Amino acid sequence: MDSEDAATYLLELDKIFEQKNWKQKENYVDVFNSLSKFSEKIIEDKSEYLLILELLREFHWISLNDYYNKCRALLINLISDLNHRNTNIYAFPIIKDKHQFKVKSGSFVSYLMKSLLETIPNGEKFKFEDINNFIDLKNLRFKKSDVFILVDDFIGSGETLHACIKEVNSINTLLVENLRILTIAIRKDTLDRINKKYKVYYNFNILKGITDYNVGEDIENKKQIMRKIENRIFLKFEQYSLGFQESESLITLLRTPDNTFPIFWNKYKKNIDTNPPFPRYEKA
């Protein structure tokens, strides 16, 4: 990458941080420095830096400080849809049975919502209980007038959601009959699929970063550009190329989902002396 292209990339990167208010984020300096080093360590030509900038313009950076307002907005929308007969709200994280005793993002979101309930208009009229494992769910005395919500910060392919609903249904079909889903972000294709059956509350609808923003030959051309970068900077990543199952997601939260393009979160080869901007650090 020549010096002129590198300078243009850095100028455009700074514009993106300004336009998206990312300089208000608590660790923006570290992220900006990491992305700046792309021009030295990762990007080789103009087509690559143009693609990186294109993806960053659509990227969603949900920091810890954002969770308060996003979860509060979800609760406000939920409460406004309920009536005086719905007095009990039971929240459960979107998890698989084998993960029920691990710390998952859905448990954090559920706990945060519980703490926020009294700040919501008419929130004092409802009792909110967070349940974190399927064993306790079996002991729940659930009435038809109660509301059951599944919560998380991000829903990707919907595979974990489907497994969770199936397990919940085997415990008590009434829970699924009164089910609503709350999430900060959800992939658009997943939303389109599950929205036909369940009421979904969300803050962000996540499109595919290349496929949904391009047409015709541009789609495959840009995928090939990204694959070329991936082959150069990763040792082993096949199942995560373009994001898990080619999700092409553009989002980071408390933990970056593996649905996001791995260039933003996966560890690079040892000879690439820089870290990803939103590290997840799992073997890929």
Describe the structure.
The chain is an alpha/beta fold and 284 residues long. It folds into two domains: 3-58 and 218-264, no CATH class; 64-206, Rossmann fold. 42% of the residues lie in helices and 14% in strands. The chain has eleven helices and seven strands. It has helices at 3-19, 28-36, 38-41, 46-57, 64-81, 105-116, 134-138, 159-171, 173-177, 188-194, 217-233; strands at 60-61, 88-93, 127-130, 147-155, 179-187, 199-206, 251-252. β2, α6 and β3 form a beta-alpha-beta unit. α1 (3-19) packs parallel to α4 (46-57) and α5 (64-81) packs across α6. The radius of gyration is 21 Å and the shape is elongated. 32% of the residues are buried. The model has no long low-confidence stretch (mean pLDDT 93).
Number of strands: 7
Global Rg: 21 Å
Separation, N- and C-terminal Cα atoms: 27 Å
Whole-number average pLDDT? Answer: 93
**Second CATH tier, the architecture of the largest domain:** 3-Layer(aba) Sandwich
Helix and strand succession? HHHHEHEHEHEHHEHEHE
Strand content: 5-15%
> What spatial form do the alpha-carbon principal axes imply?
elongated
Number of helices: 11
Pfam family, one: PRTase-CE
Organism: Chryseobacterium endalhagicum
Protein name: PRTase-CE domain-containing protein
InterPro entries: PRTase-CE (IPR056920), PRTase-like (IPR029057)
